[in-house]
Amino acid sequence: MSSESGNSVAFGNRFRTHVDRGNPIRNMDPIVVFIVLVAIAIAPIAFPGFVAAAIVCLVYPVIALFAGVAREFLPTYLRLFLVVGLVLFVLRAAFIEGKDPLFRLGNIAPTWAGMEEGARFALLVMAISGAVTLFFNVATVRYLMLALELRGVTPRATYVILASFQSIIDLGRHARTVLEAQQSRGIETQGNIIVRARAFFPILAPVFLAAINQTEERAISLDARAFNSNVSHTHLVTLRPARPREIVFAVVVVAAVLVAFIGSALGWL
Amino acid sequence: MALATLRGVSFTYAYTNEPALRDINLTLEEGLLYAIIGPNASGKSTLCALLRGIVPLFHEGELTGSAEIRGRNLFDWDPAELSREIGYVFENPFTQISGIKETVFEEIALGLENLGMPSDEVIDRVEQVVEQLELGALVAKNPNELSGGQRQKVAFASIIAMDADVIVIDEPTSQLDPESSDAVFAIIANLKKKGKSIVLVEHKMDLVAQYADRVIALNGGRLVIEGPTSEVFTSPLLNASDIARPAVTDLAEALAKVGRPLARTPVTRAEAADLIRARMKGGPRANRSR
Amino acid sequence: MPIVLDEVAFDYPDGTPAVESVSLHVKDGERVAIVGQNGAGKTTTVKLMNGLLKPRSGAVTVDGESTANRTTAMMAQTVGYVFQNPDDQIFTSSVQSELEYMPKYLRWEEVRRDERVARAVALCGLEQHLETNPNDLPIAIRKFIAIGAILVGECRYIILDEPTAGLDVPGLRLLNSLIDHLQTEGIAVVTITHDMRFVTESFDRVVAMAGGTVVADGPCEEVFADDDVLKRARIRRPEVAQLVRDLGIPTTALRLDDIVHKIP
């Protein structure tokens, strides 16, 4: 028992200082990370061709590596590339008509220009989805919400967003329990589409009923934790204030991207 | 000042016909541990909810009679103030976890954060509660990944941390194994010793008999009997209402039925042991002489 | 023909073992209570019995057939499993339709269906509630609706997860008489429970689990007499059994009706 409580004392102390997530990139202000990633993600739109987008797509793994989240980021991003990126590329490249097709396969006659256009489109989408994925890994929604709260956004607003993410997980988990309960009474959930379709209602009904029945109780138990009190809430977890050089860095990135867009509009690129 | 005074209170939930509480007359004193017992749908949870103002302030319905909480009419309370003075733990542990905190430590701290308590005090307070409830092994865990029993303990800790004078708990041990149930009751007894008033719903009558000061027995929304624990459990009114009693009380009745009654009816194991031991020492005659 | 778990092991998704080298039999008409602390492996063990979980190693057979190649829905005709929370199971808008769901799903003939539903209604005391929406009924009755929906099937083994949680005195009485009746039909009942009084009043055999293994398996009298087993499985004797123990009365009796005669 004494060793257990000893742990908790050590554990509590971590809240006495700003969060240290053990890495300079992950310790950056989530809002700075958000702005920088948005700027990087949309930058390739300013450039013609697919090279800029490809570079951006290659930059993400490097950032992930330095941020120490490569293990989480790379598999997800690779999967996105293979599933979404490849499909987008093939669809675009195959159906853009033009002169000098590279080869013919029935109605499909891809051209070099079409391939280029397909690559640009697919890589632009991957640049944006890579930024989203990386953001979830580096800054996390939780810390973004905290950063927003510390800048005056109400806890109610951040609660809605954070609780929504959690409720998706909770609903999924409850659905698995109900699935097991229904299998145990003989409802088949494996097999062809008709068999599976018959199991749809028996699984969804209890899940949604429970979710609806629990809403009010959740609200009251949140109220029991003084969530609706009018005093300004304390933040047990605090973020280190954004360092000047982080802010300068963000400004430089945003400025560079702006210049690129202006350049593009003026026909320099 | 009484914790609660109910005079002729009836309550019917909106969209239902049958009242959940019927003509309840009851006074609850401060500083005691009350257990509410009764069969299913006897109004136990509704009575708990009423003490905390959840009915009729959150759950709509028709309340008749007068309900005073700590000397003030229920309707005159600011709901936020009432929720701070009376901590409330629901039976279902899955609705108690906020879903927005990453660790159990932060989850327990949520209520204190909301009250605007300075950070260092929050940490000290949570550490105390964690130690008191022996939750050290859980503090670093994600509250959303806990089992039902673990959630129940965390929900309980979260309310205790807020240090309300009065704590209402609907079935604190429904998801717990016997060892954890005993531990939770020991903590509740300790809270009472520190001057808290506690009202709880519990089905485990052996625990109720051991820990409760007074028992409120309900049946079909009506008050069957309210009084000191041993008085209630030995009352013939209980049996007539099909309300469970401690095992040793059932045993005493069975002994009486076979013509070997104990000197009086025990409600705890310790009492029963004393009574039987006395008889064993005194021999069979000691029993007959009574 | 029994349910046989032979040296079974199963891991949680995170890789930690949930049960290890668990071996046990459940024979026709037997009444077995699985007890132990939260996290001892009780739920994993019963989920292995109806094929919800397939063992990592070892074998589970029901009536001689391995669960490995059968879905739980197929197994449900032999092994019925009533979950702890009835609301995970109930989904139709009347008690009657809930009870009729499985026969209709399996396209049974009307005669067979009506006969099985009538039996379940009688055993679970649901006569007055057939037209009612289960959501309007108290939890204790919903528990019996869930049990009834399983009893409509022709299972020879019934698993009850924490059936006494939330039951009042009349509910407990009904549950006990239901379990007695199932035994007369030769149906085996397996329960997971923390309620030791229920165990000793309604079950013949106890399987005590701790840390994913079986620490004791035998008649109630034997298991509850062993202090070491109780300590390892962190379980308690029923209150009155502990009382006679405290008093030093030499008896292994556990049921209140038997203990009455042992007290001087």
TrEMBL record, chain A:
Which species does this protein come from? freshwater metagenome
- Write out the entry's keywords from A to Z: Cell membrane, Membrane, Transmembrane, Transmembrane helix
Starting at the broadest rank, the lineage of the source organism is: unclassified sequences, metagenomes, ecological metagenomes
Can you name a GO cellular component term? plasma membrane
Can you tell me where the transmembrane regions are?
31-47, 53-70, 77-95, 121-141, 247-268
The family database entries (InterPro entries) matched by this protein are listed as: ABC/ECF_trnsptr_transmembrane, ECF_transporter_component
Asked if the keyword Transmembrane helix belongs to this entry, the reply reads yes
Q: Cellular location of this protein?
A: Membrane
Q: Which PANTHER family match?
A: SLL0384 PROTEIN
Report how it sits in the membrane.
Multi-pass membrane protein
Q: Which CDD domains match?
A: EcfT
Q: What is this protein called?
A: Unannotated protein
Automatic annotation (TrEMBL), chain B:
All residue ranges annotated as the ABC transporter domain in the record: 6-245
- SMART domains recorded for this chain? AAA (SM00382)
Task: Cite the Pfam families for this sequence.
Answer: ABC_tran
Note the Gene3D superfamilies from the entry: P-loop containing nucleotide triphosphate hydrolases
Listed under GO cellular component are:
ATP-binding cassette (ABC) transporter complex
Transmembrane stretches in the record are none
Q: Which SUPFAM superfamilies match?
A: P-loop containing nucleoside triphosphate hydrolases
Kindly list the GO molecular function terms attached to this UniProt entry: ATP binding; ATP hydrolysis activity; ATPase-coupled transmembrane transporter activity
Quote the subcellular location field of this record: Cell membrane
Q: Which family does it belong to?
A: Belongs to the ABC transporter superfamily.
Stated name of the protein: Unannotated protein
Question: Whose protein is this, by species?
Answer: freshwater metagenome
Lineage, highest ranks first = unclassified sequences, metagenomes, ecological metagenomes
UniProtKB/TrEMBL annotation, chain C:
Which Gene Ontology molecular function entries are recorded, alphabetically? ATP binding; ATP hydrolysis activity; ATPase-coupled transmembrane transporter activity
Which Pfam family, giving just one, matches this sequence? Answer: ABC_tran
The ABC transporter domain extends over 3-236
Among InterPro entries, the record links this protein to: AAA+_ATPase (IPR003593), ABC_transporter-like_ATP-bd (IPR003439), ABC_transpr_CbiO/EcfA_su (IPR015856), ECF_ABC_transporter_ATP-bd (IPR050095), P-loop_NTPase (IPR027417)
Under the heading SMART domains, the entry gives: AAA
List the GO terms this entry assigns under cellular component, sorted alphabetically: ATP-binding cassette (ABC) transporter complex
Keywords, alphabetical? ATP-binding, Nucleotide-binding, Transport
Family in the record: Belongs to the ABC transporter superfamily.
Q: What is this protein called?
A: Unannotated protein
Query: Which organism is this protein's natural source?
Result: freshwater metagenome
